[in-house]
Amino acid sequence: MSIQRTHQSRTSTLLFVIVLMATLIGVTVCNQLPESHPLHVGNYMITLLGKYLTYAILAVSVDLVWGYLGILSLGHAAFFALGGYAMGMHLMRQIGDRGVYGNPDLPDFMVFLNWTELPWYWLGFDNFAFTALMILLVPGLLAFVFGWFAFRSRVNGVYLSIITQALTYALMLAFFRNEMGLGGNNGLTDFRELLGFDLRSDEVRLGLFLASGIALLFVYLLCNVILRSRLGKVSIAIRDAEDRTRFIGYRVEHVKLALFTLSAMIAGLAGALYVPQVGIINPGEFSPLNSIEVVVWVAIGGRGTLYGAVLGAIGVNYAKTWFTGAYPEAWLFALGLLFVLVTLVLPKGVAGLFKRAKTGTSPS
Amino acid sequence: MSQSSGTQQNPLIRRDRVFEFLIPRQVDDLDLSHGTALYLEDISVNFDGFQAISGLNFYVNKGELRCLIGPNGAGKTTLMDIVTGKTRPDTGSAWFGQRINLLRMDEAEIAQVGIGRKFQKPSVFENLSVFDNLELSMAGTRNLWKTFRAKIDGQTLSRLESMAETINLIDHLHSPAGMLSHGQKQWLEIGMLIMQNPLLLLVDEPAAGMTHQEMDQTVELLTALAGDHAIVVVEHDMDFVRALNAPVTVLHQGSVLAEGSMAEIQANPDVMRVYLGTEDVSC
Amino acid sequence: MLQRRCTLLILLFLIGTTTLARADVTAGSPELDAIFTQFVEGKTTQRTEALDDLAASGRDDTRLLLNAILEGDLMLHKPSSSIVWATKEGRQYQIQSLDRTGSVDTAGRRDVKRLKLDNRLRSYLRDLIAGLGLRSADPVERLAAISALMGKPDSMADELLTELLNAEEDANVKAALTSLLARKQVGSSIAAERVQGLVILRDDLSPDSRRLVSQLANNDPDNTVKEAALAVQQAQEGKVTLYGWLETLFFGLSLGSILVLAAIGLAISFGVMGVINMAHGELIMLGAYCTWAMQQLLPNSLTASLLLSIPVAFIFTGLVGILIERTVIRFLYGRPLETLLATFGISLILQQLVRTFVSSQNVPVANPPFMSGVIEFNSVFSLTLNRLYILAFCLVVFALLLALLKRSRFGLEVRAVSQNRAMARAMGVRSARIDSLTFGLGAGIAGIAGVALSQVTNVGPNLGQAYIVDSFMVVVFGGVGNLWGTLISGMTLGIANKIMEPWAGAILAKILVLVFLIMFIQKRPRGLFPQRGRAVDAS
Asked: Which of B122, B98, B115 is nearest to B230 (CA)?
């Protein structure tokens, strides 16, 4: 087993912050340039980049538990989607009586299903503060309850991966049901405004892009603080030798539960930022494929490094956008090959390549 | 046991200095008033038909240094697993002092009340530095929030550094533990064990992979710790056991075959039969 | 009003035509001549008498002739005034003499005339035919005749029924007669007879019988009969519930057998080798496509193509499996999470290959005739053959696999490698070869699972995805590395799913099963039957 220092070095963090800030500012400035200007960044690109940034947040949340704690979650898309649904419910309430049926109390799909009353779990979603709380609480609570049982009975490794996958699969089936009162197959869409701003306006799109960037910065720094603390070292200790960590007195299940819950909340935040930018949330977001794709972003970028996760998420998604535009047939081949190649030849991901280049072939 | 000259003397046994970790810590519930630190009574463990331990009774006194020997499969490691909570026995009871029932606790709780363990195969955290390894094992809070907020002050730093010096790893303080040699990992693990400052130390094959000089140092270290700490040493190397000059318990097929000084054990006909049937006692 | 007038006109017209055709009819023999003359020219009562005469004539072809009259296959050929067999052929008729010996001629539309029937006569004819069927030498015909009478038991005379019952030797026919008798009896005006009938109806669960019983239970004027009927009703309901459970059990076992088939290959690669093969679902899918391909190659013999596709799918997916093992998995032993990712990539590639080279749509796979049909035990419980065959197929595959692993040299080597690779190598087992073959075996079984699945579900590129989560749950629930555990867990999950389906709906039942499994694994991480000894440590 090759050896690497996995905690965050100050330089890489600083570098990351500078690059991210520069990108955010640069893109904003380029967006304000006249369209004829060669450096102009269009609104389509802004939304695309905003989406990538939310994916990057999701990737960081997966990396936190996989790269630093050894929990390969194949269900993080579920937390992402739950956060997204919470935001989607708020946006649905914001439509008010401007829906097709013009019903001020019920979203269109409920009118369509002949529902007469708003289900209790929709109450409160008119309020943005409540929604913001739910965006973190719902995924967090699910992760907490799930983790409480799983970690206490020491379900780990592949078994944990499989039941996280089953979890997101079960949720997907549940959200497909119309009886859930969350739009069934079609999900939630036709959003109009957020906090009184028109979601389709250019300024709001830029605003959401910047919000995603700042959220990524905040999440990155938060994870960084945790990983640099003694708790971060304990988490790496758990990843490498779980039993040994127990024998020196650490409650492994508590550490896992705390970080897993935090990670789910971060994923929920990512989902909440994602939904207003793409304009829809549907049960497809729960599909097991989505969760595994996130894992591949992290694997390609380099697990165990936060910036690797960010690079992986943005890089793979850029490639996906390009491929689906240029060769739509070939994307799944490319993604499949990426999975195989990254596990066979690049187990440390792109970040691993950087490190090797920086430290030379044999670390001192 | 030969005392080394002053310059080479292990700093741990220098009489002019009292290390904090040599002072046993106080555990509230622990009651050692009867003089016995560990009680194992009528313990039996069955692994899918294999009787690893059967009807074992084993006591360790407060501050005692005890050697545990026995052929492979005698149940030595299983015994340690039971004490540290890794394995639950089918029957029997295990008490730490008068009040602490080990069978009701998990590994982390047992470690927190003051039972430390060094594994047979050196198991250090390979991706963490020597410093981090020692820092994590250091006795102190295991609370999640406090662990997150923990800061390393000057005093802690000097403690960690002096331990690194003691185990001859001060030059490797910031290299990953995975880069160390086998012997260095053994030392690191002993260092981690001592940083935990347990009241009862379970040491599985400390001498494996060590040079003779290092073995001598280990003997000195263990004898210095004894008295304030109860220690159980499992070892195959009979020279090492002899050098420890401590009472010996022989395990055979999951129960105690003989107990006594090394000389008595060597003269015991049962032990001779068990060992000579397979291997020489003095090997 | 208008309608009535029309009817009247038609009637007048009909009377006119019959009067015009007044002449003796020939039908091949003096006896038949007389009968048909009477039938064609007689009045209503005479016509029924003519039919009675025909029925009582004791000829071999009596039933045939009666049936032909009923179906309109016999006609009067006007030019020759004879009764003939006639079939319409374009605008003309093909006619032949009644004994079917003469040559086939053609006759114009206007030269032939139907033998007139009204509804009363038709019903009379049916009864006659049934009555004749009752005395037929063939038990199948007798049974058919009795079934035809079930709905109107009173059309049969008591004496005839008793006589038939006493003479009957075939058990099935006797049972049918008894149940006919019971239907007569419950309609009787004598209370004691109604009770007798009820006793017999107790064992008859057909909706008709249950309706009769419930009528008596609700409305019978006699209290003893009413009570008896209530008791019978209860007994019947108990049995219906019991058969309902049996049916659920069968559906459960059937779903379970599919789950087991899908999971068992995984149990080998995961349980024996510690490899998480996420491409397992796609190997199943490839197996299903093998069935499709074989049907394309042999479009005229569905049975042969299905049977042939079993070995073809086994070999093809087995080879694909070996290829995957040699090129990817070989490098990832001992790193289960990595195998999970790499094989997931392979699953995407396999899916996309099928989409690109076959079609992204579902392909049609036909069921051979022997797969369709039902075995009916009684009117509330029947088993569909395709499900029964798949259940049997699953058990056969399971038994063969168990025998292979427990009794053969190869199985011994597989178990040796899975328990202690280093030791097995030291003993001269070529572990790399065993790994390839084991993985190929798991893949091959996925292939034959695909053949079975092609008979019950749609075959398309996404087929595998639908089964992968389920298969993993089956393996983990049963206990990794334990084939019996996989069998029991698959069957248990199948039954649990089907038990919940009636009140929860299919999707909710599936969700509940998944939630249950998630909780179960948290309680017992090693499954129902944990592997003994040195467990496959997958972390």
From this structure: B115
Residue range C327-374, pLDDT digits in tens = 998 888 878 888 888 998 999 999 999 998 888 888 888 888 887 778
Q: In this structure, what DSSP letter does residue C430 have?
A: -
Distance from CA of A319 to the nearest CA of C (A): 16
Comparing A185-194, B247-256, C7-16, C280-289, the range with the smallest average pLDDT is C7-16
Query: Could you state, in order of their start, the residue ranges of all structural domains in chain A?
Result: 12-294
Residue among B107, B127, B147 minimizing CB distance to A236: B127
Report which residue type is found at A227.
L
ipTM: 0.84
Window 179-238 of B, Cβ < 8 Å to A: 179, 192, 196
Categorize the per-residue pLDDT at B283 as very low, low, confident or very high, splitting at 50, 70 and 90.
very low
In a domain, B18, yes or no: no
The predicted pLDDT at position B29 comes to 62
Mean pLDDT of chain B: 80
Nearest CA in chain A to B179: A3
CB contact under 8 A, A255 and B178: no
Q: Let me know: does A309 contact A8? Beta carbons within 8 Å.
A: no
Is-contact A155 C525, C-beta < 8 A? Answer: yes
- Model confidence over B41-89: pLDDT tens digits? 888 888 877 788 888 888 888 888 999 888 877 888 888 888 888 888 8
In this complex, the chains that touch C, judged by 3 or more CB pairs closer than 8 A, are A
Give partners of A (≥3 CB pairs < 8 A). B, C
Q: Is A91 exposed, middle or buried (0-12, 13-18, 19+ CB in 10 A)?
A: buried
CB-based contact A250 B108, cutoff 8 Å = yes
Q: Give the span between the Cα atoms of A296 and C342, in whole angstroms.
A: 10
- Domain range holding B207? 31-124+198-278
CATH code (residue B243) = 3.40.50.300
Give dist(CA A312, CA A60) in Å, integer.
Answer: 10
Q: Which residues contact B210 (CB under 8 A, 6 or more apart)?
A: B183, B186, B218
Of A102-106, B14-18, C152-156, C513-517, minimum mean pLDDT range = B14-18
What is the share, in percent, of chain C residues with pLDDT greater than 70?
A: 93
Q: How far apart are CA C312 and CA C482, in angstroms?
A: 27
Q: Is A237 on the interface with B (CB under 8 A)?
A: yes
Q: In what order do the strands lie in the sheet with B50-61?
A: B50-61, B36-47, B91-96, B100-101
Higher pLDDT, C192 or A68: A68
Q: Are strands C74-77 and B255-260 parallel, antiparallel or unpaired?
A: unpaired
The count of domains in chain B is 1
For residue C509, the chain A residues in CB contact (below 8 A) are: none
Chain A, 153-212: which have a CB under 8 Å from a chain C CB? 153-159, 161-163, 165-167, 169-170, 173-174, 176-177
Instruction: Give yes or no for A236 touching B (CB within 8 A).
Output: yes
Q: For the segment C444-468, what is each residue's pLDDT rounded down to a tens digit?
A: 999 999 999 888 888 988 888 878 8
pLDDT at A211: 93
Shortest distance between the Cα of C360 and any Cα of chain A, in A, equals: 11
What is the reported pLDDT for A64?
A: 93
Contact B125 A226 (CB under 8 A): no
Please tell me if residue A241 touches chain B, with a CB cutoff of 8 Å: yes
Angle between helices A202-228 and A252-278 (to 10 degrees): 170
Confidence of residue B279 (pLDDT cuts 50, 70, 90): very low
